[in-house]
Amino acid sequence: MNHVRISIGLAAATMLLLGGCADDGDDSGSPPSSTRSATSHGAAPTPEQLAAALVTADDYDGTWAVNVPQDAEGAIDGVVPESKQGMLPRIELCGKAGRESHLAAEGLRWQAFRQIDQSEEDPIDMATGDRVGHMIFVQEYLLAEDPAEVESTFNALRDGMRACQGKIPAGEEGPGEAEPMAIPDVGDDRYGDVTRLAEAGGGAYWLLHNSLVRQGPVLMDLQVVDIVMGQGVEPAFTTEGIGAFVATAVEKLP
């Protein structure tokens, strides 16, 4: 099932477009994050090292495949060259986010990217047009630079997403809502939210679980997307399940 266009477009249209609210966990008992990042991590890894640390189709339970469609000219998997930065979705925060948050989002240059899709029965019946089931994929974005710069970027993005929490008005899709999402105590700092967005016309909704993690010189954005289709169909993942996705990805970071 090839749905790269749906996947990339969805990421742009939901969390990356709208931001959300979050709970970045409880760091009680831990040293200040700025101290940990400065003392426990070395030089920033190269884009090639980041690409080697991306999640693979073998890292999660179930059957997954890396999404690099043959008909997608210039598809990205691994290192993201400057010439292809414009192909990735951009974080476009809402108007309630502050200037620093907007500047941080506009200045993002992800250095490594991968999308993996879960292989399951096609939820769309081509004969009847009925849609029952799930379309599930994971997108991972990585960048690395000076730890102090990464900390500043993380803080600005987190603050902007928090400012955009709550109800999401209807646009091309929707309406929806962004809510906090607890994620494991990983990295030097972390932030999680989940956005639920209704499909225009009904019949399906999108759950975009977003996790932003700072670990020394590395910033990771991991998104687990579940497109839920059909009356009575329940989400595929619990909060604990999303936490396992995040923990696995962070364990691989250089």
Automatic annotation (TrEMBL):
Specify where the region named Disordered lies, as residue ranges: 23-45
Composition bias of kind Low complexity appears in 28-40
This chain belongs to which protein, by name?
PknH-like extracellular domain-containing protein
Query: Could you tell me which species this protein originates from?
Result: Nocardioides pinisoli
